[in-house]
């Protein structure tokens, strides 16, 4: 497939996730809720996560933001459904490394559709837009004391 056709396909996937976001709305019962803002462009994201049996059983986001912000949130929610907090935290790390271009050889397949946001690294002004949902997820899965939710859950399962 020609590069321009591939770029158009990626652009269409991003536009579709933005126009028809997956997991958009609110949860009846959330284990964790967080709101983050991107002061640079005004994106606002509320993220709600429900954990059941040590896995993300439901997730939802709401708020206002640019196309990249909304698409990234939609892709992130798809990617982490059914994952443990530890797996989700690892995905946040992979996404972060991908988007800032630190480790181009990381396995991006774990990110699902979100891997197509790799091109955002070429646009520094958009990096905060793409990472907002992933930062919210990381914060939602991390206790105030800095311990990951995976560690907290494993302490209670023993």
UniProtKB/TrEMBL annotation:
<dbReference type="Pfam" id="PF01592">
    <property type="entry name" value="NifU_N"/>
</dbReference>
<dbReference type="InterPro" id="IPR002871">
    <property type="entry name" value="NIF_FeS_clus_asmbl_NifU_N"/>
</dbReference>
<feature type="domain" description="NIF system FeS cluster assembly NifU N-terminal">
    <location>
        <begin position="10"/>
        <end position="129"/>
    </location>
</feature>
<protein>
    <submittedName>
        <fullName>Fe-S cluster assembly sulfur transfer protein SufU</fullName>
    </submittedName>
</protein>
């Amino acid at each position: 497939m020609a590069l321009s056709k591939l770029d158009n396909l990626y652009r269409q996937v991003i536009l579709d996730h933005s126009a028809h976001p997956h997991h958009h709305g609110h949860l009846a019962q959330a284990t964790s809720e967080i709101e983050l803002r991107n002061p640079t462009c005004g994106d606002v994201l509320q993220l709600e996560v429900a954990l059941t049996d040590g896995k993300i059983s439901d997730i939802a986001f709401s708020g206002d933001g640019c196309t990249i912000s909304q698409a990234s949130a939609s892709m992130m929610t798809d990617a982490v459904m059914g994952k443990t907090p530890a797996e989700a935290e690892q995905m946040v790390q992979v996404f972060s490394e991908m988007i800032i271009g630190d480790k181009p050889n990381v396995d991006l397949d774990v990110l699902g559709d979100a891997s197509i946001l790799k091109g955002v690294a070429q646009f520094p002004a958009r990096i905060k837009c793409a990472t907002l949902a992933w930062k919210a997820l990381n914060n939602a899965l991390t206790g105030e004391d800095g311990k990951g939710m995976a560690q907290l859950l494993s302490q209670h399962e023993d």
